[in-house]
Amino acid sequence: MRPTGTTTAPGPAAVKSLFITRKQLADVLGCSTPTLDRMRAAGKIGPHPVRIGVGTAGLRWHAEEVREWADHRTPAGGLMDAKQWAAHRAARQR
After folding, report:
1. pLDDT tens across 65-87, in order?
2. CATH code, domain carrying 44
3. Does residue 22 fall inside a structural domain?
4. Assuming Cys at both sites, which of 36, 55, 58, 69 could form a disulfide with 26, CB separation 3.0 to 4.6 Å?
5. Domain coverage including residue 31
6. pLDDT tens string 24-40
7. Is residue 17 classed as helix, strand or coil in its secondary structure?
8. Is residue 7 part of a domain?
9. Which one-letter DSSP state was computed for residue 49?
10. Is 68 left (phi over 0), alpha (psi -120 to 50) or beta?
């Protein structure tokens, strides 16, 4: 029995929901996973992935960062590429 007012760390299911898969990110962007892979290789995806497993199937993105990235557009209305996104995040952390 836990004393009143204490909390425990989130379980694996809660932690997993903090990340999205390649397929989920591709769905957010409205493209296929091969197109997502090409965009990522070209530096067109702002957030950097976290490697959780082997190969591209092991890539995950922080869901909150993807939401933030999608909400902050370039002046022309497009999504920020990797360089623009890195500069945006660095400026916000100052």
Report:
1. 999 999 999 999 999 999 999 99
2. 1.10.10
3. yes
4. 36
5. 14-93
6. 999 999 999 999 999 99
7. coil
8. no
9. P
10. alpha
Pure H helices in the chain: 12-16, 22-29, 33-41, 63-71, 82-93
Please tell me which residue, 27 or 8, carries the higher pLDDT value: 27
Q: How far apart are CA 6 and CA 4, in angstroms?
A: 6
Question: What is residue 94's predicted lDDT score, i.e. its pLDDT?
Answer: 79
Residue 20 main-chain phi, psi, to 5 deg:
-120, 150
In the chain, the number of structural domains is 1
Q: Is residue 1 part of a domain?
A: no
Q: What's the residue count for the chain?
A: 94
51 part of a folded domain: yes
What is the rounded average pLDDT of the residues 36-64? 93
In this prediction, residue 2 carries a pLDDT of: 47
Spatial distance between the Cα atoms of 61 and 69, rounded to a whole number of angstroms: 11
Specify whether the CB–CB gap between 40 and 33 falls below 8 A.
Answer: no
